[in-house]
Amino acid sequence: ADLAIDPGFGTGGLAGVNFAASVDSARAVAVQADGRLVLVGLSRQVLGGTVYSYVGVARLLANGTPDPDFGTAGQVSLLPGGTPAEPLNGGDGRAVLVQPDQKILVAGAWSPGGGAPGQIFVLRLDTDEDEAWFPWKNPDEHLARLIQPMGVSLGELKARGAMAFGGRPTI
In 10 A of CB 139, how many CB atoms? Predict the structure, then answer.
């Protein structure tokens, strides 16, 4: 069979995502039940004059255009462990999975810099909830709600130098 680029997808068959005019790299893609695409990766962005590595999450409509109902213009940038101690450190989204209930799981690596050990994370995005719930609006509040049933305080978790994002997956 002949292979051809689909001219109806994106612009001439190519859909691009640019986070803050920075260096971006897609690491994984998943397809939601309605055909929307979720991409995760790394985005180098400036915060307070310093360049950090953000976890970039983008969602495109089935035709390759940014999904206006996801984040800001189809994009979300996250520093899952807070602001790193050194430039170029931060997060890197490396895997994405769409659960049967269409919630989005993002997994990756986090490097705080300053000699601290790197960590892995998993984050669940519930795109059907009210926008105030989204972890990128207030990650500490979100994390505190997630770990409360485990009997661990957010302060205790941070004091241990650990971080975890997650939820209750549907299998």
Answer: 18
